[in-house]
């Protein structure tokens, strides 16, 4: 399960961010790390604790490029996370992943926006 969000102007912003020096991208990366960690910790808090496998399988990692993070909630021992999140024919849904994303979305967006603005101001010398 991967939470995805659609953003407008991504291509133009991605080009600007990639043109920033590595030390400026580091500040943005820290904001992304903190946000991904917040989502993962919240999902762990809300995940059912029958055996604990699902809770321990929740985490995050760097994505395909340095300014991307992937929060995940499943591995080979806890493949059933999607069945708990969305329910099955015989079992009602007990969401834990998307509520964690929604709870952290605004704060994370503010944190990332602040880091991006700070990096852009620093690059301009302001």
Spell the H/E element sequence. Answer: HHHEEHH
Taken as a percent bin, the fraction of beta residues is: 5-15%
How many domains make up the 3D coordinates? 1
**Low-confidence blocks of residues:** none
Tell me the number of strands: 2
Helix content: 55-70%
Largest sheet: 2 strands, antiparallel
Q: In angstroms, what is the radius of gyration?
A: 17 Å
Helix/strand/pairing class, anyone? Answer: mainly alpha
Average pLDDT for all residues: 85
* Physical arrangement of strands within the biggest beta sheet: 1-2
Report how far the terminal alpha carbons are from each other.
Answer: 40 Å
Morphology: elongated
User: How many helical elements?
Assistant: 5
Describe the structure.
- The chain has 126 residues and is mainly α.
- It has one domain (32-124).
- It is 59% helix and 8% strand.
- The chain is built from five helices and two strands, in the order H-H-H-E-E-H-H.
- It has a two-stranded antiparallel sheet.
- A hairpin with a 6-residue loop joins strand 1 (58-62) and strand 2.
- It is elongated, with a radius of gyration of 17 Å.
């Amino acid at each position: 399960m991967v939470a995805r969000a659609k953003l407008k102007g991504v291509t133009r912003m991605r080009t600007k961010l990639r043109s920033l020096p590595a030390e400026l991208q580091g500040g943005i990366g820290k904001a992304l790390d903190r946000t991904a960690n917040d989502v993962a910790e919240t999902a762990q808090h809300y995940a059912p604790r029958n055996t604990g496998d699902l809770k321990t399988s929740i985490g995050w990692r760097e994505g395909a490029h340095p300014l991307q993070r992937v929060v995940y909630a499943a591995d080979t021992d806890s493949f059933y996370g999607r069945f708990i999140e969305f329910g099955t024919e015989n079992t009602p849904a007990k969401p834990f992943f998307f509520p964690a994303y929604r709870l952290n979305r605004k704060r994370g967006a503010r944190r990332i926006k602040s880091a991006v603005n700070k990096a852009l101001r620093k690059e301009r010398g302001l």
